[in-house]
Design brief:
Blueprint lengths: L7 H15 L12 E6 L10 H19 L3 E3 L3 E2 L4 H10 L3 H18 L10 E2 L3 H16 L3 E11 L4 E3 L4 E2 L2 E2 L7 E10 L5 H6 L9 H11 L1 E11 L10 E6 L10 E4 L4 H8 L2 H12 L4 H6 L4 E10 L2 E11 L10 E4 L5 H10 L7 E2 L5 H11 L8 E2 L10 H14 L1 E2 L2 E2 L1 E7 L4 E2 L1 E2 L9 E4 L3 E4 L21 H4 L5 E3 L6 E4 L3 E2 L1 H4 L3 H4 L11 H7 L4 E5 L5 H15 L15 E4 L2 E7 L5 E2 L4 E4 L6 E4 L5 E9 L10 H7 L2 H9 L8 E2 L2 H24 L13 H22 L3 H18 L7 H16 L4 H10 L23 E8 L2 E9 L4 H10 L1 H7 L6 E5 L3 E5 L1
The protein binds one RNA strand through helix 7, strand 11, strand 15, helix 11 and strand 35.
RNA sequence: GCGGACGUGGUGGAAUGGUAGACACACGAGACUUAAAAUCUCGAGAUGGCAACAUCGUGCGGGUUCGAGUCCCGCCGUCCGCACCA
């Protein structure tokens, strides 16, 4: 008799209620048990979850449930990255308060996440906008300030004119704000920064230890930190050419070996020497202004010619007092790298050679290939304007001639370290980093207040610990741009904690990336009176598996690595004082979807069109007008392109298990998955199929707890082998996050059980029950609700989620007989079924006796026969 | 420009150097049905052949190996990251 369809939406609510009622996902710190901390990047509470969240959290949930079944004490928490601009924008647009907007969004999204059936410990929920969270962040800030890891500086900053705030270097992409897309301006402001550069070397070195991080992310961070080894060289200036008091110019170079190829010096328009010279030279001042106005976008840089302005200043070559070089202000020199000054060696630097050509400066090749004709070719190329960057030997370089560039580097360093200028060595070896300190001041309301007070007498005064948190005032106004804290009538006016005189609060708030730089630590003891609890953090950290999007490869992941070190420095990282917060990282791919446009070119939602046909014949029709619509490219799901599918709709229609299953199947988790209606429908069909197969199996299967029969026939053994092999493989594949492969194995086992229903044999009923139970337990992490439903149907009144992971019987993982392919000269000709224990000789004999092989040999005698036991025989003639 | 990844049927994708295409989607044929949906069974890389089978086949060209999707070298293509970093 046919059973009813499985009503996923209804049953899922039921099981979620059961889990909630028994509080099965609550986790306690318990050092007597092995732990596993599974974490997915927490969401920004935008108001709705999207398919990217569904994918991310499903992956984490499968792993968490699997680890739980394996006996680990699993920490799997969730929270909210709740400060940020959108809340303030909403406040401006809709006359609501950021706090109200945020908490309403959190409530809505929490309901959505709950409908996914995630095994989360909601008792550990944190929201970064809550004073109970940010009070600790302020504490951490003050401790970092005390250790000089946080400091205030006057600096040129990236100013986003649309968001009216400062951006960190990491948040400027192609010269535009990462959120607003507005062209970033340079402004000089006093602002707070974290001394991330204090850890440059350590952050770089430790990347090597992060073996369970994607190579790609480690490389991106390595490039971002950007270490280079070189020499700081101080050049004497010719006094009568210098308009101000400077007597020397310090430059950084990674190629001191090419010192004899120097033909000019170049300094940044903002270099002190340039400013001094510009003060007395109107034309130079104009040139510097022009450089500053120049855009920094990719397009601008490509167009920009290398140009310079001769300051008239002369520098003296460190190896030759009679050799004077002109000092230029040049538009391609960056003030914030090295010393903002270089020596130009046109022969071996592409920028320098372009500059030299434009400014008609000499070009002297000093490195060239050892042999002709390659040497002559390289030199000719240099004179055509192509810098020579490869290996070779030194030429035109006096005492360096004939040396390799590496040896020349050392020789120059050795000599210049001994030379003295104004009482100090002329040069010293120096390691330079591209990484800049992290500017964290934001001129916004909806962020963590920076807990300091500015006093006219005492200067910068930390807010005393007992006065924390510095709370955000609720009565702020959002009707005009700018910082609501700054224009608040009373909030910033306080008395100085030291001298009791009138003072003002810092009105900047922290970059929201600070909030997300330590939430993983807070999860280990979310109610602790201190930022973290030592016992809890020692037990739980590091995160054993972190899962999130590749877009955080640098920003969030680098900041967190720094912050965890800073927490260690300030005594907030527990007794083990680990430096790395995330032992393993997995970056999942995006959820992408086709895009649709109306004839008029407006984006259309998938629900606003209908599709028919297939392949090249596929046609879309706009439902509202009945007119043809255009099927566009496959893109990341986004509001702007309207190619969104609402998880709520899918869950309400097909069920959470179906959405989860679809997310896990098909695409490998690190690649993009294309959301298709057909794919989801397929997942839905599988869900129903499981329901039927389990029902059918139960009709044939032995009762629950039946004793294993003494005799098991071939059919029973085949079922057992299939089940245990799947068990072995699925476990390994979940562990390795190869969910798509694990899914395929579950399909296979369900097909096998299905096929066996029509068979009979000794003990098959018992084997089928065993297989069904194993199958349901493996299904559990992926389709947890259906898993519970089937578990009950199998006759149990326990919860599947509380069952230990079954163990595969090693004896069942290998077959008695194996199929061995037989090749002739590497070409497959036949196959052979032999006993597993057959010797090489036996296999070889049997292979050579095969009719097809005899035929393929055409009477030739085998020269060699390679037998790989249980795999392959290759007959070579 | 620098760095990296990837390239397998109609599609998504499997494959410790050892039978390429598991599994799924889409497709085709059949069964059930008044019919449809749902479900079930079967088929399927390409070419040739009624068939057994043969030949070709993992972007292209070489190489290593008894054996290469997998390793090495050189191209081509796609995607990603960084970028006037001295």
């Amino acid at each position: 008799m046919a059973i009813e369809r499985y009503n996923a939406p209804e049953r899922e609510k039921h099981w979620q209620g059961v889990w909630d009622g028994k509080d099965v996902f609550r986790t306690a710190t318990d050092p007597s048990r092995p732990k596993c901390y599974v974490l997915e990047m927490f969401p920004y509470p935008s108001g709705r979850i999207h398919m990217g969240h569904v994918r991310n959290y499903t992956m984490g949930d499968v792993l968490a449930r699997f680890k739980r079944a394996q006996g680990f004490n699993v920490l799997h928490p969730m929270g909210w990255d709740a400060f940020g601009m959108p809340a303030e924008n909403a406040a401006m647009e809709r006359k609501t308060h950021p706090k109200k907007w945020t908490y309403e969004n959190i409530a809505a999204m929490k309901t959505q996440l709950k409908s996914m059936g995630l095994s989360l410990d909601w008792s550990r929920e944190v929201a970064t906008c809550d004073p109970s969270y940010y009070v600790h962040q302020q504490r951490l800030f003050l401790d970092m300030y005390a250790k000089d890891l946080a400091y205030r500086r006057k600096a040129k900053v990236n100013w986003d004119p649309v968001d009216q705030t400062v951006l960190a270097n990491e948040q400027v992409i192609d010269g535009r704000g990462w959120r607003s897309g507005a062209l970033v301006e340079q402004r000089e402001l006093a602002q707070w920064a974290f001394r991330i550069t204090a850890y440059s070397q350590d952050l770089l070195d430790a990347l090597k230890t992060l073996e369970k991080w994607p190579e790609k992310v480690r490389l991106m961070q390595e490039n971002w930190i950007g270490r280079s080894e070189g020499l700081m060289v101080r050049w004497k200036l010719v006094p009568e050419t210098v308009p101000s008091g400077e007597t020397e110019l310090e430059i950084f170079t990674t190629r001191p070996d090419t010192l004899f190829g120097a033909s000019f010096m170049a300094i940044a328009p903002d270099h002190p020497l340039a400013r001094a010279a510009a003060a007395k030279n109107k034309a130079l001042a104009d040139f510097c202004d022009e450089c500053r106005r120049m855009g920094t976008s990719v397009a601008d840089l490509e167009k920009a010619e290398k140009r310079g302005f001769d300051t008239g200043i002369k520098a003296v070559h460190p190896f030759d007092p009679s050799w004077q070089l002109p000092v230029y202000v040049a538009n391609f020199i960056l003030m914030d790298y090295g010393t903002g000054a270089i020596f130009g060696c046109p022969g071996h630097d592409q920028r320098d050679i372009e500059f030299a050509k434009n400014m008609q400066l000499p070009i002297i090749p000093v490195v060239a290939p050892k042999e002709e004709p390659r040497r002559a070719q390289a030199i000719a190329k240099v004179h055509e304007g192509v810098a020579y960057l490869d290996e070779g030997e030194m030429i035109n370089s006096r005492f360096l001639d004939g040396l390799s560039p590496e040896a020349a580097f050392d020789e120059v360093a050795r000599r210049l370290e001994k030379e003295v200028l104004a009482g100090k060595p002329v040069a010293e070896r120096k390691v330079n980093f591209r990484l800049r300190d992290w500017g964290i001041s934001r001129q916004r309301y909806w962020g963590c207040p920076i807990p300091v007070i500015h006093c006219g007498t005492c200067g910068t005064v930390p807010v005393p610990a007992d006065q924390l948190p510095v709370m955000l005032p609720d009565d702020a106004t959002f009707d005009v741009p700018g910082n609501p804290l700054d224009r608040h009538p009373t909030w910033k006016h306080v008395d100085c904690p030291k001298c009791r005189q009138k003072a003002v609060r810092e009105t900047d708030t922290m970059d929201t990336f600070v909030d997300s730089s330590w939430y993983f630590a807070r999860f280990t003891a979310p109610d602790a009176k201190t930022p973290v609890d030592k016992t809890a953090i020692d037990y739980w950290m590091p995160v054993d598996q972190y899962i999130g999007g590749i877009e955080h490869a640098i920003l969030h992941l680098l900041y967190s690595r720094f912050f965890y070190r800073a927490m260690g420095e300030t005594g907030h990282a527990g007794g083990k004082n680990l430096r790395e917060p995330f032992a393993a990282l997995f970056t999942q791919g995006m959820v992408v979807h086709e895009t649709y446009k109306s004839e008029a070119g407006a984006w259309l939602l998938p629900t606003e069109i209908s599709l028919e046909g297939e392949g090249a014949e596929r046609r879309a029709t706009e439902l509202a007008t009945g007119k043809p619509a255009i099927i566009g490219s496959i893109e990341k799901m986004s509001k702007s392109k309207k190619n969104l599918v609402d998880p709520d709709d899918i869950i309400a229609h097909y069920g959470a298990d179906c959405a989860r299953w679809f997310m896990l199947s098909d695409s490998p988790p690190e690649r993009d998955v294309i959301w298709t209606e057909a794919g989801v429908a397929g997942a839905g069909r599988f869900m129903q199929r499981v329901w039927r197969v389990i029902d059918d199996v139960l009709e044939k299967a032995a009762p629950k707890g039946a004793k294993q029969p003494d005799v098991l026939g071939d059919e029973a053994m085949a079922v057992r082998r299939a089940a245990h092999k799947a068990l072995d493989q699925v476990g390994k594949n979940i562990e390795g996050l190869r969910f798509n492969v694990a899914v395929a194995q579950l399909y296979e086992l369900s097909n096998t059980m299905s096929a066996m229903l029509s068979k009979s044999g000794p003990g098959l009923d018992w084997a089928l029950r065993e297989a069904a139970e194993i199958f349901v337990q493996m299904l559990g992490p992926m389709m947890p609700h259906l898993g519970e439903e089937c578990w009950t149907r199998l006759g149990y009144n326990t919860l599947l989620v509380e069952q230990p992971w079954p163990k595969a019987d090693p004896a069942l993982l290998v077959d008695d007989t194996v199929v061995v392919a037989v090749q002739v000269n590497g070409k497959r000709r036949d196959e052979l079924t032999v006993s597993r224990s057959a010797t090489k000789d036996e296999v070889e004999k049997a292979a050579l006796a095969l009719d097809s092989i005899v035929k393929a040999l055409e009477g030739r005698a085998p020269k060699r026969v390679i037998v790989v036991p249980q795999r392959i025989v290759n007959v070579v003639v």
